[in-house]
Amino acid sequence: MSEPTSTDKEKKKPPLNGRRALPSNNSNAEENEVPEMDAFGLIPRGFNPKDYLRVVDIHMFKEPYEINKQQHHTDKYYNPKLIVRRGQPFQIQIDFNRPYKPETDQFWLEYLIGRYPQPNKGTYIPILVGDVLKPGEWGAKIIHKENNSIRLSIMSSATCIVGKFRLYVAIWTPFGIIRTHRNSATDTYILFNPWCQQDAVYLDDEKEREEYVLNDVGIVFHGDIDEIKLRSWSYGQFEENILDACLFLMDKAELELSGRGNPIKICRVASAVINSRDDNGVIAGSWDNTYTYGVAPSAWTGSVDILLEYYSSKQPVRYGQCWVFAGVFNTFLRCLGIPARLITNYSSAHDNNANLQLDFFLDDEGQVDAKLTKDSIWNYHCWNEAWMTRPDLPVGFGGWQAVDGTPQETSDGMYRCGPASVQAIKHGHVCFQFDAPFVFAEVNSDVVYSRREKNGAQIIEKIDTTHIGKLIVTKGVGTDEMVEITEEYKFQEGSEEERLALETAVMYGVKKQSTQDAMYQPQKDVEMDFQVQKAVLGSDFKVTITFRNKSRNSYTATTYLSGNIVFYTGVTKNEFKKHSFTVKLEPLMSSAFDVIITSSEYLSDLLDQASFHFFVTARINETGKILAAQKATVLEIPSLRIKTQGEMVADKEMSVIVEFTNPLKKTLEDVTLRLEGPGVLKTMKKEFRQIPSNSTLIWEVKCIPKRPGLRKLIASLNCDALRHVYGELSIQIQKP
User: Fold this and answer.
1) How far is CA 25 from CA 21, 159, 542, in A?
2) What is the secondary structure of 569-628 as a DSSP string?
3) pTM summary value
4) Which of 355, 374, 381, 674 is buried most deeply by CB count within 10 Å?
5) CA distance linking residue 466 with residue 472, whole number of Å
6) Residues in the active site (predicted)?
7) Catalytic residue, candidates 196, 246, 267, 322
């Protein structure tokens, strides 16, 4: 091979800066050239490396049924290479050209990662063979010798870098070191280890480890507080190429390899790279109901398609909303071995100046002034929790950490959020990094209705302290039940502890505007509330407004109902219903009034999640005081039915049938169906031009399930007139 010219060499050299001798080592994918012979000096003529100990073969025991993947809980990964968890011993066998003689032969192992391996950075790890393995520290010992082979037990450090390492065996000769060739078959992935007590992500409950690390299907709770809905999500962290795609995310985020043993750093950079804002990350968000040139967020059934598309195209995948960001983030965390769960906060505050109060400004009529009102209440918001110790915080703040990949506000100049200790949020200790004040506001803000008088004085009409963060939930361990975890984020509403946590948060600098400078004199003797009837998409329903006059006076109330079609983020698209009427309120009486909403009023403008938001305001004419209330509601959406035909046995063909009946009074056009089930079938897609009103579509798919055990099939239907249509089916695949 000819010697490269000097210009070639200059081109290959990465740019250096004045602060470091080596360029940054932030790509797991890049490699360096490792010399197969490191000569100590001049090599004598008669030297023949074949006279010395030589490696003939290395056995990695990397099959799913072999000891390493079984003991390390990595047998589910659809990946031919060795995958182990850190801080726990694994075995390899080395075949030499002759029996190994410990008295005279000397060899060692070298694990390398990245392009500039260095011992002090944990990116170059030489391992000498010793007599004992120290728990949680790098080391190797011989456990079996037979003929020309030795079997080694190798221990990795419980704090080592997580990623894909290259393995070399080095042999000492008097004239130099001889190494094995670069062989990608011996590459070893090292992951986090929730089973190892010294690991920062150690979780002591086996049932929880099975759920939060090994379960590849989960549930997303959505809808709203009065109409909770759920859908399954396929995480697919063990599917083909997903592990490499997750490691690529850390390369994309340019996380130094030396920082990749630290779950805090990994979560922080991942929360930024999951969304495409400011770093061309995985998913582009879209909340405006137009999803041209992309997939509607509601159509995805899992994370695999998204991660694989990003891994191959390196361009943001369109489109996502909060549960999509959270679903993909959960796949990333579980894939690397960090215990993680997806949680939903109902009535989540997006408080854009973090003053712990959501300001709704009313005009003279008592209607919400859209120009002044900047804050919004999301019907629900999904984020993730990752389990880890927090050595960077005082004792007691480890455990679940809130992390959020949905781009809402910037943190240190990038769209990212967390990790924030859930325990610190509960107690109001929001001074501890990262982004605790923002998460605290999401679950604790007050809703304040105020109105400006003609003379400029601001009058607060109502303060609602219980509307936000009403319910926080996640999927149960080992079940599909919904489990409430509200009390992990906040004390009982109205309790002494809750007040104290709030005061603590305010003391630590969460801005809470005083209401002193505004006049706050609510109308105490009349109460107003309203109820929205539960309804199926396409039908009429009613809103019932009730007044209770607790005084001995007669009042008249001018009442205004505004019905809005909203995004689930609480942002209004348009007002589809306006209705005003005046009512007489007799002393010490309750009275109820119905307002009918017909399907023709709302169907043409309906958005994805079939969400409505109603504001009712009433002015008591005799006192000029205003009563205000608001509620979100969602319509019931029809679901898909999934059936199977044939016996369900691994490696045998079976049929899956998806059915759907169109409930609307109109024909659905350009309908896309998706179907997936980890271990049963890869994602399938089918387009239908039209589904007439009341007619039923039937789609049959043949597949050959790969893995026995309890599996889940998940389907979605999507078209412009109807989104968020799901179906699922749990099936038991038998062993052949």
Assistant:
1) 12, 18, 62
2) TS-EEEEEEEEEEEEEE-TT-EEEEEEEE-HHHHGGG--TT-EEEEEEEEEETTT--EEE
3) 0.85
4) 381
5) 13
6) 322, 381, 404
7) 322
pLDDT digits (tens, 9 = 90+) for 651-683: 999 999 999 999 888 899 999 999 999 889 999
Query: What distance in Å separates the CA atoms of residue 285 and residue 269, rounded to the nearest whole number?
Result: 18
Instruction: Indicate where the chain has its CATH 3.90.260.10 domain(s).
Output: 207-508
- Classify 641-733 by CATH class: mainly beta
Burial bucket for residue 412 (CB in 10 Å: 0-12, 13-18, 19+): exposed
Look up the CATH superfamily of 521-634. Answer: Immunoglobulins (2.60.40.10)
Residues 579 and 604 sit within 8 Å (Cβ to Cβ): no
The catalytic position among 244, 305, 351, 404 is: 404
Q: Is 529 a catalytic residue?
A: no
CA-CA distance, 191 to 161, in Å (whole number)?
8
Is 446 within any annotated ligand binding site? yes
Catalytically annotated residue among 72, 222, 350, 381: 381
Class of domain 207-508: alpha beta
Active site residue 417: no
Is residue 72 part of the annotated active site? The answer reads no
Residues of the chain with CATH 2.60.40.10: 37-191, 521-634, 641-733
Q: Is 399 left (phi over 0), alpha (psi -120 to 50) or beta?
A: left
**Under CATH, which number does the domain 37-191 receive?**
2.60.40.10
Take residue 134 and report the two structure tokens written for it.
């120290």
Residue 378 neighbours by CB distance under 10 Å: 25
Tally helices (H) and strands (E) across the chain.
Answer: 12, 41
